[in-house]
Design a protein that fits this description.
The complex is a heterotrimer of chains A (818), B (290) and C (168). By secondary structure, chain A is of the alpha+beta class. In chain A, 27% of the residues lie in helices and 23% in strands. In chain A, helix 19 packs across helix 20. Chain A is globular, with a radius of gyration of 28 Å. The two termini of chain A are 46 Å apart. Chain B has helices spanning 14-23, 37-42, 78-83, 85-90, 92-98, 104-109, 112-118, 124-131, 149-152, 226-232, 239-248, 263-283; strands at 7-9, 28-31, 50-53, 63-66, 69-72, 135-140, 143-148, 153-155, 158-159, 166-172, 178-185, 192-202, 208-216, 223-224. In chain B, helix 5 packs antiparallel against helix 8 (124-131), helix 10 (226-232) packs antiparallel against helix 11 and helix 11 packs antiparallel against helix 12. With 290 residues, chain B is α+β, with helices and mostly antiparallel strands. Chain C has 168 residues and is α+β, with helices and mostly antiparallel strands. A five-stranded mixed sheet of chain C has the order 2-1-5-3-4, sandwiched between helices. The relative contact order of chain C is 0.16. Classes of the chains: A alpha+beta (818), B alpha+beta (290), C alpha+beta (168). Chain A binds chain B through residues 129-130, 133-134, 137, 291-293, 655-656, 696, 700, 709-710, 712, 714-715, 717-720, 722-723, 779, 781, 784-785, 812-814, 816, and chain B through 1-5, 39, 43-44, 103, 186-191, 243, 250, 258-259, 261-262, 264-265, 267-269, 271-272, 275.
């Protein structure tokens, strides 16, 4: 699909390795050879290995800890207890605070009371991980289990224990309201209100590489060097400096190649502080590689929430109001990125609604802390909203495409401010809706009519439309929320003597292809060969202060900084080149690896020579400063909003609740693509994660014991290649007017629509059964239960609405359906 | 997660291996494929004093015909089973079942003896062996004994093997010619939520006999729906008879509730899967009776 | 420390001998004793398959074998595909062209699993490939491009009739 608008983006040059080209990635060579440098690949000499003793109970008093046997084990070098940690460090800071929430003082280790299964209670370093684990097994901890808080509902029961009594009267950490207009009044006067209580599952982002840190301390200089599997090296540096009471300048963080982040590697965790403390105490390098058992108990979980949503409309289909009161199950502490914030911001999605409100209750429980995960609340709001939109259509007897189209914000409405204050920049939401409908065969499906297929299955088509915020509105927006990071990015671009340029940026390499896309931007702006641009990422000592890779912001913010710095460097190169060629600046250009005359490209000077002159300051034009590098900071004018519609075709077996996702399409707009191949990779990857959450993933705690039931790879169901459908992508390209090159972020969009799309498809397939869905994941058992529930309400697959008493069991047994 | 320390021995003969088992007084475990044992050791759910690596013992990976009986050494790997012509010919149920065991890497290492010793209540090999009425030979330094599969699998991950015993043969009698295998999982390669293995003989009139209906994942070990099978004896597996038998199968199940499914849902699935498997058995005419 | 055991094995055509605790698994052995860090550890539970290597030509999860079990055997890791100064192996090129990797952590596991298929002369369909490669888990890509790379690469390899023996 062609772009609709012209924007103020720079010219797009279709050469190899410039913006808009699907050039192969620079990262790939080393990664394909197995020569990447992931955290555990760093193997310093005399390294000690950390293992952590963790509380197995959700809530317990630590009566005593005896480490005598552990300390005596051959090969054990150092042990830390809670008292050591509290006296030797400060609590882990929160980077993205929950508005109105007090600080919870999250030290790196529990002292008197452990607040979640997995909470560190002691740590050991030894000459090998094997021995460190042997030592942990020898640590004797006397726990007194306490009554635990299992979920948000019991957390708010006045009889439940208050988990942070020093700062809170209850387990409600904060209540935040967002919205505009008077939705309650509008709902009261609506012709139709659809509402439900939705349960969103707790999941794990599950990167293939767990967390890793290697900490080295130089006693004389008092300097800490840390290699970290992180998406945010500069923020890690800041937090480590704070917790360890060091100057920022004494801490260097080098991000290793990161084996997946997805929001789980934003900021520091207790083990990072512990590794550094051990390094500072022993003077030896300390490495901690998280194992998968720890991972499920110690790395942040995501998404769990309970939503009470109401959507009101006129009988002509016009949606007039929405509200959502939702409870986030935060776990025992507020993690650095805390609870997802975008559920409220993107609540009304692509629809023109002027009266809407969300009330967000962030509630503490005795579970692992929750943090950011790709999507950061948007999958949740898309699910609850789009499921209700489909229900509204069914209630009104309206067509689901037309109902959406009639309510969507139109291109001419942009920029459009939603009730949450988000300003949608540009886009044609209806175009993606129509493309998705066409691609999935919506019309044929409607024409085919209801009733089972020849194989007995019921076929359904479901859609979900969404808008996704990428990047941040501005640093003002972040300041209002007391975020400890900005919305800008910084880069340094430095010419080298081979004739190429080195780009330094503080984001890390975690799969999104920044080494490549950044090089494409620079190559494009400077007209220099893509192969001459080398991107160096993730070293706090080498790069300007940086925010990091999350919120789909990296390319947007970095592209602006890259453009500025590259333009500055280009202009100086042209001045020097013109001087060498004895020409006017306007008459020369950069072409690949040389500066040449525009009208006579044979007359040229190699970039290597131009760069060398500047670097040694010999043969330079008069009045020109020595050196050849530029640094720039850039903050986008606003957030860019990606958008689209996903559609799925499913066939359901009503006897068992099984369903096949036979087709899944997404029509999506991410503005001007820098690298279309990488873009599709991000979208499909996100779709796979969204699919996993929708269909099979969940972290489940046992109500009685409060422990995680399925904290292993065997019992947490993540999709294999055989579990996923093929995802069909369609693109539109409406540039964003508020970002460099008109790009929109793309890192998270895939996670947003999957659950809503599939829930809607299943409900469509089983519409005659009266099935409604309000929870995740969409297991066959859930579908089957909903069929039973609908039956109990009096629905039958034929038009007769009688309840058939013969068919209902009394003890939970169900007879076979016909 | 690293295993706790253990001693490792690699005996050169079966007798040596049995000797170590005997002298370890319950502190030793046999290491065959290791696909189940090693994760348990590494998660420290289990600790052993001694690991006895039997993977190099000669002759334990043979598959041979002993008259009508098929005899498997305990070290026959799943991938081997998947492709052996002898197994295709005589025991095709095993090949159907094997495809659901883990993934290709796991099947390259996992063994038939190991699977039976593991006694996973959802395991495909224990289930298929139950349907096939297999017998294992268990040896110790004191001698050997035969244990019928039904007697071997005594509970969830529990067998009748003594600590000093090792499976040295899996003997499968000639199987009824027709079979059906169904398995249901939450995701590919995962443990079964429920699985069904059926064998039976069909005469030229279409009458069925010698039916064995084995169910996995719905009790603490795989079970035979004996009443259901005898109800169908002599029938043509007509729809009504099948439906009735499928309901009868519920009598031998006592399903767990776990992360994969609730007991209630498993109960709901039992008659459905038995019915579907019997229907498949009846309608699958690929193999003629001899 | 518990007793060490001597392990001699051939990795990527070269013989090595090390003394290690028997509880060290093969993945740790390759990474820590031999410095071959291309084989990655994702779970140590035998599920993610990121640690897949070839042992005696068969794809196995190296976290599920203790190092002594590999005594005398031939192990092949991702490092065998291309020497330091060599061009990328055609399979690696296929991955690069198809954008079949993002973070790269699971990639060596897939490369070895596909190498095993190629060595066996297999040419599965795309659907069959989903099954054949279901023993390696990727969280970044959604698998589409991995399947494309595998299809393209295998379509250029020789197909064989049968499978040979079982040397482990």
């Amino acid at each position: 699909m062609a772009g609709v608008f012209e924007a103020e983006a720079t010219e797009i040059d279709v050469q190899k390795g410039t913006i808009g080209v699907s050039v192969a990635r620079k990262e790939d060579d080393r990664l394909l050879r197995g020569a990447g440098r992931f955290g555990d690949d760093v193997q310093p000499g005399h390294c000690l290995h950390l293992a952590v003793a963790r509380c197995p109970f959700p809530h317990a008093r630590i009566a005593s800890i005896d480490v005598t046997q552990a300390a005596a084990l051959d090969g054990v070098e150092d042990i830390l207890l809670g008292s050591d940690v509290v006296s030797g460090s400060d609590p882990i800071s929160v980077l993205r605070p929950v508005p109105d929430a007090p600080s919870l003082n999250f030290f790196a280790m529990a002292t008197d009371v452990a607040l979640f299964e997995g909470h560190p209670v002691a740590s050991v370093v030894a000459v090998s991980r094997h021995i460190a684990e042997d030592a942990v097994a020898l640590i004797e901890v006397d726990y007194e289990p306490l009554e635990h808080v299992f979920d948000v509902e019991s957390a708010m029961d006045p009889r439940s224990p208050v988990l942070h009594p020093q700062v809170l009267q209850s387990n409600l950490l904060a209540r935040n309201r967002t919205g505009a207009g008077d939705p309650e009044a509008k709902l009261a006067g609506a012709d139709v209100v659809v509402e439900d209580r939705f349960v969103v599952n707790r999941v794990s982002g599950l990167p293939m590489e767990t967390r890793v840190i290697v900490a080295e301390w130089q006693p004389g200089a008092r300097e800490l060097t840390v290699r970290h599997s992180t998406q945010v090296p500069h923020l890690v540096r800041k937090q480590l400096a704070e917790s360890l009471r060091l100057d920022d300048g004494a801490v260097q963080v080098l991000a290793t190649d990161v084996g997946g982040g997805f929001g789980l590697k934003l900021g520091i965790y207790p083990e990072d502080v512990l590794a550094c403390l051990h390094a500072m105490r022993t003077g030896r390098p300390v490495k901690w590689v998280e194992d998968r058992i720890e991972f499920f108990r110690a790395t942040t979980h995501a998404r769990e929430s309970l939503h009470r949503v109401r959507l009101g409309a006129r009988s002509d289909g016009h949606i007039i109001a929405m509200t959502d009161v939702y409870d986030i199950d935060l776990g025992g502490y507020n993690s650095p990125m805390g609870s997802p914030q975008l559920t409220s911001v993107m609540f009304t999605g692509p629809y023109r609604i002027n009266d809407a409100r969300t009330e967000r209750n962030v509630i503490l429980t005795n579970k692992a802390p929750v943090g950011a995960y790709r999507g950061y609340g948007q999958p949740e709001s898309c699910f609850v909203r789009e499921v209700l939109v489909d229900r509204l259509a069914r209630r009104l007897g309206a067509d689901r495409i037309e109902l959406r189209a009639q309510n969507m914000v139109r291109p001419e409405d942009m920029p459009w401010k939603s009730t949450s204050g988000a300003t949608y920049d540009s886009g044609d939401y209806e175009a993606c809706l129509r493309i998705a409908a066409e691609a999935i065969g919506y019309e044929e499906h409607i024409r085919r009519g209801r009733g089972p297929r020849s194989d007995g299955r019921y076929v359904g088509v479901g859609l979900a439309s969404f808008v996704e915020r990428t990047g941040y509105e501005s640093s003002k927006f972040l300041a209002n929320r007391r975020s400890r990071f900005g919305a800008h990015e910084g880069v340094v671009v430095r010419a080298n003597r081979t004739g190429g340029v080195d780009v330094y940026n503080g984001v890390s390499t975690f799969g999104v292809g920044s080494e490549t896309s950044f090089a494409q931007v620079v190559a494009d702006v400077m007209s220099i060969d893509f192969d001459l641009v080398r991107v160096h990422l993730g070293d706090t000592a080498a790069s300007p202060l940086n925010t990091g890779g999350f919120a789909s912001r990296t390319l947007i913010a970095s592209a602006g900084a890259l453009r500025r710095a590259a333009e500055e460097l280009r202009d100086k190169i042209l001045r020097i080149g013109a001087f060498v060629l004895d020409a006017e600046v306007g008459d020369v250009m950069i072409s690949g690896d040389a500066v040449c005359m525009r009208d006579d490209p044979e007359r040229s000077v190699p970039l290597a020579e131009v760069h060398d002159r500047a670097i040694i300051n010999q043969g330079m034009p008069p009045g020109e400063e020595p050196g050849l590098e530029a640094s720039a900071q850039f903050e986008p004018a606003g957030a860019a909003y990606g958008y689209g519609t996903a559609a799925a075709l499913v066939s359901v077996d009503p006897e068992t609740g099984d369903y096949d996702v036979e087709r899944f399409v997404v029509a999506h707009d991410c503005g001007n693509p820098v690298n279309p191949m990488l873009l599709d990779g991000q979208v499909v990857g996100g779709l796979a994660q969204g699919y996993g959450q929708a269909v099979m993933e969940e972290l489940r705690y046992d109500e009685e014991t409060g422990q995680l039931i399925n904290g292993t790879m065997m019992d947490y169901f993540m999709p294999t290649a055989a579990d996923l459908p093929e995802f069909e992508l369609h693109h539109t390209y409406v540039p964003s007017p508020v970002t460099p090159f008109g790009i929109r972020g793309v890192g998270e969009v895939g996670t947003v629509p999957g659950a809503a799309t599939l829930a809607n498809a299943i409900c469509d397939a089983l519409a005659d059964f009266g099935v409604e869905i309000n929870r995740l994941p969409l297991t066959p058992e859930l579908v089957w239960k909903q069929i039973q529930a609908a039956r109990a309400r009096g629905h039958r697959p034929d038009s007769d609405a009688r309840v058939d008493e013969d068919r209902q069991g009394t003890d939970g047994e169900r007879h076979e359906a016909t | 997660m690293k295993s706790a320390p253990f001693s490792y021995v690699r005996p050169e003969s079966l007798a040596d291996a049995l000797g170590v088992l005997e002298s370890s007084a319950g502190g030793a475990r046999v290491l065959a494929g290791g696909q189940s044992l090693v994760p348990m050791l590494q998660m420290r759910l289990m600790q052993v004093d001694t690991l006895i690596d039997i993977n190099r013992l000669p002759g334990l990976d043979d598959v041979r015909a002993d008259g009508p009986e098929t005899v498997f050494g305990p070290l026959v790997r799943h991938t081997m089973l998947e492709s052996l012509p002898l197994v295709s010919e005589r025991l095709p149920l095993l090949q159907s079942a094997i495809r659901y065991v883990g993934d290709p890497q796991i099947r390259n290492r996992g063994t038939i003896g190991g699977s039976l010793a593991q006694a996973d209540p959802t395991g495909e090999i224990p289930l298929a062996c139950l349907a096939l009425d297999a017998v294992v030979v268990a040896q110790s330094v004191s001698g050997s004994r035969r244990i019928a599969i039904g007697d071997l699998l005594v509970g969830s991950y529990a067998t009748a093997l003594e600590p000093e015993e090792m499976i040295t043969e899996v003997r499968v009698p000639p199987a009824a010619h027709h079979f059906a295998f169904l398995e249901r999982n939450r995701k590919h390669n995962d443990f079964a939520v429920i699985n069904v293995a059926i064998v039976g003989c069909r005469d030229s009139d279409g009458r069925w006999s010698s039916l064995r209906i084995a169910l996995g994942g719905v009790n603490d070990r795989p079970v035979l729906a004996v009443e259901a099978a005898s109800l169908l004896e002599g029938t043509m597996l007509e729809e009504e008879a099948v439906a009735e038998a499928a309901q009868l199968a519920l009598e031998v199940v006592d399903p767990p509730s776990d992360i994969r499914a609730s007991a209630e849902y498993r109960r709901h699935l039992v008659p459905i899967y038995v019915r579907r498997a019997l229907t498949k058995l009846r309608d699958d005419h690929e193999r003629p009776d001899v | 420390m518990s007793d060490r055991i001597s392990v001699t094995l051939v990795v990527n055509g070269r013989e090595y001998r090390r003394d290690v605790e028997p509880r060290m698994h093969l993945a740790d052995f390759l990474r820590q004793e031999l410095g071959l860090t291309g084989t990655h550890i994702g779970c140590e539970q035998g599920v993610c398959g990121n640690c897949t290597v070839l042992v005696a030509g068969k794809a196995v999860k190296s976290c599920l074998m203790f190092a002594p079990q590999a005594e005398g055997l031939e192990v092949t890791t991702v490092e065998s595909l291309a020497g330091f100064d060599e061009e990328l192996h055609p399979l690696q090129e296929a991955f690069k062209d198809a954008h079949a990797l993002q973070c790269g952590y699971c990639t060596p596991g897939f490369l070895m699993a596909i190498s095993a298929l190629a060595a066996e002369g297999r040419r599965p369909t795309r659907d069959e490939l989903r099954q054949e490669l279901s023993g390696v888990i990727c969280r970044c890509t959604g698998y589409e491009n991995i399947l494309t790379a595998a299809e393209r690469y295998l379509s250029k390899q020789r197909v064989s009739e049968g499978v040979d023996g079982w040397g482990i």
